[in-house]
Amino acid sequence: MREGVTPADAERAAALELVHGLRAVALRLEQSVGEFARTSGLHGTDVRALVSLLDAERAGVEATPSWLAQQLGMTSQATTAVIHRLEAAGHVERLRSRTDGRSARLQVSDSAVGLGWQFFGPLLDRLIATTQTLDSDQQTVVKNYLSAVTDALG
Question: What is the pTM of this model?
Answer without folding.
Answer: 0.84
